[in-house]
Structure to design on (624 residues):
C-alpha cells in the first residue's frame, strides 16, 4: 500500500570509490552500474528474477487447470499433488503457478501509466512555471491526502472490481508522486545553460522535454518508479486479498490467501505459498529500489562536491 | 507572518482539501456508477423499478443538489442512512469508530517510542551490526503489504509455530476491545510493524545529522556520557524532522487498519468499509472515506504545525 511517507536514507553506506569518479551525469546506465555494486541491489534483482520467472513461466508448468477440481478440499497430503488441495479441492501448486500473472501485469501497467502521466505533468510544470503549475501541484497535494487503497475502494463501490478501474485508480494514485519527483528534479535542469541553448536554437518544446530534460531526470525517476511499483504490487495484491479481484474464481495470490485462511491449521500451503511469493516480490523490488536510491544519492553528492 | 497566522492559513488549506476530497468521493461513488442500478442488479432492467429506486434514494435530483445536500448533512454530523437496512449510519458506526481508534492508539503508543529508540540507537551505532540489522529489517518491513505481515504473524504466533495468541479477534457485541486484550496483540503488532520502519529511518537520518554537528561534539568533549549526549542534547533537535513523520504515520495507521481489520476479523471502520462495498452501500462508504480523509488531513495539519512549534529555527523564520 502506498505510504504517505517515503524516506530514502542518507547515503551513509555508499562506498567512497563509488561516489566521486565520473559522475557528471544522472543517466540511468551509469546509475544502474553503480547500483549493481551494492549487495542489496544484486540480491533484489536475483529475487525479482525468480518471482517474475514463477509468475511468467509458471503457467506453462502447471499440472492442473485453474479451476479444475482434483480431490477432497483442504487436504495437505494428496497422492500426486505437491502441496495438496485448497478449499474447493483445486490443486494448490497449479493455482500458485498461475496466480502471479494478474498481480504482476496490473501493477506494471498501472505503474507505467502513472509514469507516463506523471513524467508529462512533472516536466510540463518544470518548464512552464506559473498558475497552471501551481494548480497542478495543489491538486497533487490533495490526491496525496487520501490513502491510495481507499481511493481505489471508493471507486469500485458502484462499478465493481473491473480491470480498467483498478488499473486506472492505481495509476491515478501513482501519477502525483511521480509528477512531484520529476518536477523537483527537472526544475534544477531547466535553469542550466544547455536548455537555454536549445531554446535559443529554436527547438520545439516537446523536443526540449524529451531530449534535454528527460535524460537528465531519469536517475531520480527510476528510483521513484521502482518505489511506486512496490506499492502498486501491494495495492493490487491487497485488493485481491480483500475479495475485489476481477475474476472471482481465478487463481491469484491475493485471493488464495483470502480463501484458504480459514483452513490454515489443517492445510497451510494454500496460504504459505502465495504469502511467500508476494513477500519475496515486494522485498525484491524494495531492495532494488533502495540500491538505486543509494546509488542515485551518491551521484547527486558527486555532482555537488 | 506570525505563527498564529501560519496556523490559520494551514487550517483553511485543510478545510479546502477536505471539500475537494468530498467532491472526489462523491464523483467516484455516485456519478461514476449508478448506485440504484448496482443495488438492483438484474432487476434494474425493468425501467419502472429502476426509476422508483432512484427516486427512493434521491438520485433523481440534479447532481449538484445531491452533492450539496449530502455535504451539508455531513457537516451537520448527519451522514445519512445505510442503503442496506435504512438504519442511521451513526447508530452503528459509533462503536466501529471507537474500536478502530482503540486499535490505532494502542499501536501508536507502542510503536512510536520504540521506533524513536531504535532509530536513535542505530544512528549512535552507525554502520555497526545493530544498525545493519535494523536497516535491512526496516527495508523489508516497509516493502511488505500489511496483510502479508499480518498473515506471517498469524502463521508464526497463532496457528503454526507457536500457539500464543488468537488468530481472530473476539470483539463482538458486548465484548469491547479492552475486554479482549489478548486478541488485540496480533492486530496491534501488525500495525506496529507497518509503521515502525518509517519512523526508525526518519529518526536515524535526522539523528545522524545532529550527531555530526559541532555542539554535540562539544558536549562530548565536555565529558558528558554518551547516553546524556543522545537524550539531553541530540534528541530535542532530532525530533523536529521526526515529528512530521510521526504525525504522518498516525495517518498511515488509519489507512492501514482497513487491511489489518480484515486479516483479524476486527469490527472497526475498515471491516465496515469492506462489508459496505459489495453491498453498494454508498452512504456508508462515503462516510468512512470522508472520516479517514479527515483524519489524514488533521494529522498532516498537526505535522506541519507541530514541526513549526518544535523547531525554533522555523518559528523565527515565520515572524
Amino acid at each position: 500500500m502506498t505510504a504517505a511517507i517515503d524516506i530514502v536514507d542518507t547515503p551513509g553506506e555508499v562506498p567512497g570509490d563509488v561516489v566521486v569518479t565520473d559522475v557528471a551525469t544522472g543517466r540511468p546506465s551509469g546509475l544502474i552500474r553503480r547500483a549493481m555494486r551494492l549487495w542489496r541491489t544484486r540480491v533484489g534483482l536475483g529475487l525479482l528474477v525468480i518471482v517474475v520467472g514463477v509468475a511468467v513461466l509458471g503457467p506453462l508448468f502447471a499440472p492442473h487447470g485453474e479451476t479444475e477440481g482434483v480431490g477432497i478440499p483442504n487436504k495437505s497430503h494428496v497422492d500426486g499433488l505437491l502441496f495438496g488441495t485448497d478449499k474447493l479441492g483445486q490443486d494448490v501448486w497449479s493455482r500458485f503457478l498461475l496466480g502471479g500473472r494478474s498481480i504482476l501485469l496490473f501493477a506494471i501497467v498501472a505503474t507505467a501509466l502513472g509514469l507516463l502521466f506523471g513524467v508529462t505533468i512533472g516536466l510540463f510544470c518544470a518548464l512552464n512555471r506559473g498558475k497552471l503549475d501551481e494548480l497542478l501541484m495543489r491538486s497533487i497535494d490533495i490526491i496525496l491526502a487520501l490513502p491510495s487503497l481507499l481511493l481505489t475502494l471508493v471507486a469500485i463501490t458502484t462499478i465493481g472490481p473491473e480491470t480498467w478501474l483498478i488499473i486506472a485508480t492505481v495509476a491515478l494514485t501513482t501519477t502525483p508522486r511521480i509528477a512531484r519527483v520529476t518536477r523537483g528534479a527537472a526544475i534544477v535542469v531547466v535553469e542550466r545553460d544547455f536548455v537555454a541553448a536549445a531554446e535559443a536554437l529554436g527547438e520545439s518544446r516537446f523536443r526540449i522535454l524529451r531530449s534535454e530534460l528527460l535524460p537528465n531526470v531519469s536517475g531520480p525517476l527510476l528510483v521513484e518508479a521502482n518505489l511506486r511499483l512496490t506499492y502498486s504490487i501491494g495495492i493490487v495484491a491487497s485488493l485481491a486479498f480483500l475479495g475485489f479481484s476481477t475474476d472471482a474464481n481465478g487463481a491469484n495470490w491475493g485471493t488464495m490467501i483470502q480463501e484458504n485462511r480459514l483452513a490454515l491449521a489443517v492445510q497451510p500451503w494454500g496460504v504459505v505459498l502465495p504469502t511467500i511469493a508476494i513477500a519475496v516480490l515486494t522485498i525484491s523490488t524494495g531492495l532494488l529500489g533502495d540500491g538505486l536510491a543509494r546509488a542515485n544519492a551518491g551521484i547527486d553528492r558527486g555532482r555537488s562536491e | 507572518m506570525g505563527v498564529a497566522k501560519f496556523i490559520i492559513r494551514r487550517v483553511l488549506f485543510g478545510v479546502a482539501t477536505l471539500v475537494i476530497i468530498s467532491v472526489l468521493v462523491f464523483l467516484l461513488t455516485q456519478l461514476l456508477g449508478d448506485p440504484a442500478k448496482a443495488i438492483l442488479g438484474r432487476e434494474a432492467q425493468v425501467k419502472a423499478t429502476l426509476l422508483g429506486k432512484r427516486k427512493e434514494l434521491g438520485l433523481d435530483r440534479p447532481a449538484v443538489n445531491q452533492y450539496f445536500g449530502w455535504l451539508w448533512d455531513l457537516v451537520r454530523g448527519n451522514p445519512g442512512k445505510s442503503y442496506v437496512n435504512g438504519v442511521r449510519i451513526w447508530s452503528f458506526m459509533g462503536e466501529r469508530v471507537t474500536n478502530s481508534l482503540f486499535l490505532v492508539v494502542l499501536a501508536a503508543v507502542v510503536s512510536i517510542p520504540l521506533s524513536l529508540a531504535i532509530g536513535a540507537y542505530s544512528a549512535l551505532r552507525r554502520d555497526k551490526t545493530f544498525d545493519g540489522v535494523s536497516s535491512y529489517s526496516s527495508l523489508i518491513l516497509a516493502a511488505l503489504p500489511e496483510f502479508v505481515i499480518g498473515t506471517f504473524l498469524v502463521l508464526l504466533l497463532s496457528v503454526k509455530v507457536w500457539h500464543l495468541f488468537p488468530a481472530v479477534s473476539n470483539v463482538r457485541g458486548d465484548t469491547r476491545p479492552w475486554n479482549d486484550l489478548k486478541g488485540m496483540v496480533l492486530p496491534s503488532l501488525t500495525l506496529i510493524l507497518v509503521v515502525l520502519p518509517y519512523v526508525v529511518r526518519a529518526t536515524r537520518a535526522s539523528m545522524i545529522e545532529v550527531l555530526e554537528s559541532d555542539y554535540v561534539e562539544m558536549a562530548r568533549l565536555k565529558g558528558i556520557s554518551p547516553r546524556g549526549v543522545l537524550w539531553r542534547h541530540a534528541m530535542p533537535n532530532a525530533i523536529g524532522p521526526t515529528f512530521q513523520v510521526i504525525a504522518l504515520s498516525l495517518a498511515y495507521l488509519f489507512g492501514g487498519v482497513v487491511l489489518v481489520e480484515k486479516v483479524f476479523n476486527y469490527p472497526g471502520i475498515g471491516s465496515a468499509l469492506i462489508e459496505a462495498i459489495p453491498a453498494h452501500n454508498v452512504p456508508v462508504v462515503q462516510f468512512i472515506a470522508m472520516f479517514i480523509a479527515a483524519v489524514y488531513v488533521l494529522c498532516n495539519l498537526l505535522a506541519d504545525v507541530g514541526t513549526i512549534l518544535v523547531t525554533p529555527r522555523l518559528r523565527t523564520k515565520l515572524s
